[in-house]
Amino acid sequence: MSIVVDSLAEVHAALQHAPIGAVVVDRAGVISWANPAFASIVGEADPAALRLALVTLWMDPEDGEALLQMLQSHFATPGEARLPWTRPTTFKRIDGAEQPGEITLAPCSGAFDQFAILHVRNLVRLATAEKRFSQIFENLPLGLIVIDGGQRIVQLNQALANQFGYSREELVGRSLDVLLPPRYRTEHQHHIDAYTRAPVARSMGLGSDLTGLHRLGREIPVEVALTRLETMAQPLYMAIVTDITVRKRGQEALQQTNAQLEEFTYVASHDLRSPLRGIADLVTWIREDLGDENMTPEVKHNFDRIALRINRAEQMIDDLLSYARAGNRDLETEIVTPCDLVDEALSLALVPESFTVEVEIEEGGSPFRAPRAPLATSLRNLIGNAVKHHGGENGHIRISVGENGRYTVFTVDDDGPGIAKGNEERIFKLFHRASPGTSGEGLGLAFTRRMINAHGGMITVRSPGELGGACFEIHWPRVLLKEMDDE
To answer: pLDDT at residue 207 above 50?
Structure first.
């Protein structure tokens, strides 16, 4: 269907400031008028300079010949029966440069019957965008696949072909089912149907383990993100497929190691408790057989030392059990406020009144969701250590809270003797005491680190800190990474 135009003046006014090129030509392709956008495409500063030139001068010869033939057919057809015609072409600028474009013959009739309008699009930006997309598509180290509405594979990159053991030629045109385990295919179709009704970029299979089917028949764990590609033709969908085999193996190995450690700890504690209790019973019986009146002060002292060491050994077993349990992540979370956590830790850490305590909560110390107990326990342990290892009656402790990326950072700084150089990592080992003269079995910091690591955080120490002693930092995640949620 052609557009009825009353006058050339109307056309000039409508197209003068159009964002795409426009020219008015006669049946021989001679330009009678051009707008500034077309002049810019061919590299001419003044559109009037193009008047009476052949439009084909700036076109590829083959495309120019096709346009002239189309013009002849166009003018030989009655106005109301004329149809639009579009062809991609390459335009040659006055400076000799070439750029991709697209030319459309728009049918007109009425007072404009002896002329035709050509709309010209500069496709340089589109071609550049397509080239960049192609480069990213091919070089991204993640599997990329494009499918159509019928679940047929339209395009894929080499990374995806390698993940599934195929060549790209083997997969293009085939159904996506070839990459899915049979048990997923029906359900997958339901998911795709739902996605096409509401095509929002998202991850697939949230809360479940997804697998793909390798060419050799084995299944590989994957993560998939799906998005819609906007095209002028049929709808297309692109999936980003990540092979997480190595990560899954690492997670499984870590889970097995933690389970084995916990099992070993429980078995060892049971096997150690039995002989300890037997020794304690024997000591009690011997002491009763001897009677207090038959024992010298030295013998009584030795019996007391034996009882003390048995109690200490039993306490070490309890500490080992606590250490093993600290590797389990607490799934009970709540909204916690850093200021409240610090107040709670201070109230339970029994800080002497002779100590000065500073608390600095930065603007970033806002509430977040986390398991309260392990975080509060970790803070309490660090504050208690600052008191226990200080060595003086009057001390200074500074507790500050801020944010660093996705972490909330709790800092406990003191003015005590600090950590001996070279011991910054050793103090987190089992049964290592930072100060030999203090009580305890050296499990506090090991327990604290294991508990923090189990929840996706980390603990570090530097010495001297700003106050001259030890400075501990807890980086606690405000948002857990997905692999933590998957455990």
So the answer is: no
Contacts of 253 (CB under 8 A, 6+ apart): none
Around Cβ 180, how many Cβ atoms within 10 Å? 20
Distance CA 279, CA 256 (A): 35
Lookup: tokens for 176: 């996506």
Instruction: Report strand pairing: 219-229 vs 236-243.
Output: antiparallel
Query: For residue 375, how many C-alpha atoms fall within 13 Å in the half-sphere facing its CB?
Result: 33
Neighbours of 56 (CB within 10 A): 20
- Asked if pLDDT for residue 3 goes beyond 60, the answer is no
Separation of alpha carbons 425 and 419, rounded Å: 10
| HEC per residue, the chain | CCEEECCHHHHHHHHCCCCCEEEEECCCCEEEEECHHHHHHHCCCCHHHHCCCEHHHHECHHHHHHHHHHHHHHHHCCHHHCCCEEEEEEEECCCCCEEEEEEEEECEEECCCCCEEEEEEECHHHHHHHHHHHHHHHHCCCEEEEEECCCEEEEECHHHHHHHCCCHHHHCCCEHHHHCCHHHHHHHHHHHHHHHHCCCCEEECCCCCEEEECCCCCEEEEEEEEEEECCCCCCEEEEEEEECHHHHHHHHHHHHHHHHHHHHHHHHHHHHHHHHHHHHHHHHHHHHHHCHHHCCHHHHHHHHHHHHHHHHHHHHHHHHHHHHHCCCCCCCCEEECHHHHHHHHHHHCCCCCCCEEEEEECCCCCCEEECHHHHHHHHHHHHHHHHHCCCCCCCEEEEEEEEECCEEEEEEEECCCCCCCCCCCHHHCCCCCCCCCCCCCCCHHHHHHHHHHHCCCEEEEECCCCCCCCEEEEEEECCCCHHHHHC
pLDDT at 472 over 90: yes
Length of the chain: 487
Per-residue model confidence as pLDDT tens digits over 127-165: 777 788 888 888 888 899 998 888 899 999 999 999 999
CB atoms within 10 A of CB 397: 24
- Kindly report, residue by residue over 344-355, the tens digit of the pLDDT: 888 888 888 889
